[in-house]
Amino acid sequence: MKRLLDIIGSFFGLLATSPILFPVMFMVWWQDKHSPFYIAPRVGSNNRQFNMIKLRSMRVNADKSGVDSTSANDQRITKVGHFIRRYKLDELIQLWNVLKGDMSLVGPRPNVKKETDLYTPAERKLLDVQPGITDFSSIVFSDEGDVLKDYPDPDIAYNQLIRPGKSLLGLFYIDKRSFLVDVKLILLTILAIVSRDRALNAVQSLMKKLGAAPALIELAGRRNKLFPMPPPGRRTIVTSRESELEEETR
User: Fold this and answer.
1) CB 194 within 8 A of CB 211
2) Which class for 184: exposed (0-12), middle (13-18), buried (19 or more C-beta within 10 A)?
3) What is the pLDDT of residues 3-50, one digit of tens each?
4) C-beta atoms surrounding 83 within 10 Å
5) How far apart are CA 241 and CA 184, in angstroms?
6) d(CA 205, CA 225)
7) DSSP secondary-structure letter at 224?
8) What is the DSSP string of 220-245?
9) How many domains does the chain have?
């Protein structure tokens, strides 16, 4: 049923959004005469790497900076790119990956290998399922760029502020996933574009019905400031991706 939902949803999703995607593709190409697509290597289920397609929101060769996390005020983002990121159009094009079978409509967001190499044993469970376009964490942390905006090192800020909650929500989804939960998360993702507050309230209600821990439900509401936390399966807060890798390989 899940794969059938993916095929039908991605096909008709691409068809319905093509009047929006094609003009935006042209705008991206027009600004610098380079491809409107960015091929982003990601790690999927069973640690298999695949090429995730994105609408390019940054200048050409922006990935050579070595920075994996992107803040809202990142100088690499183009003028058209801010529009693309505001309305999640860079992720919408990933319906193509869903149609191909690399991804699912709903599942933990795929990450770069540099980050998945740092996963704790608890977080590696995230690689047991097909990655998706959306899940609980995609709605809760849809403002990721704004969260990272004022930090000098977005990658460390990501690991301290976003990764812990994102991983917990991803693991919660894996434990509670079902066809009905997937349908509800797709609808809530659409709602989040119109009203993020209403979507967060609905996410909290859904998580409560599914038996989530009170602390995780509170996190999902995003009413409180995010503070540095260790990711699931780790006792200390991440201060360096290199030192964390050393710790994981001991």
Assistant:
1) no
2) middle
3) 999 999 999 999 999 999 999 999 889 988 888 888 989 999 999 999
4) 14
5) 35
6) 20
7) S
8) HHT-S-----PPTT-SS--S-HHHHH
9) 1
Domain span including residue 47 = 2-248
**How many Cα atoms sit within 13 Å of 50 on the Cβ side?**
21
Mapped onto helix, strand or coil, the DSSP state of residue 61 is: coil
| CB atoms near residue 190 (< 10 Å) | 11
- In degrees, rounded to 5, the angle at the alpha carbon of residue 102 between the alpha carbons of residues 98 and 107 is 70
Three-class SS state of 203: helix
- Span 53-87, pLDDT tens digits: 988 887 776 666 555 566 555 677 888 888 888 77
> Which pTM does this prediction carry?
0.87
Residue 48 zone, left/alpha/beta (φ > 0; ψ -120 to 50; rest): beta
Both tokens assigned to 225: 């400031």
Distance, in Å, from the CA atom of 117 to the CA atom of 112, rounded to the nearest integer, reads 9
Both tokens assigned to 94: 């990933």
101: exposed, middle or buried (C-beta count within 10 Å: 0-12, 13-18, 19+)?
Answer: middle
Please tell me the chain's helix, strand, coil percentages from 3-state DSSP, rounded to the nearest 5.
60, 10, 35
* Block residue for tokens 């690499």: 76
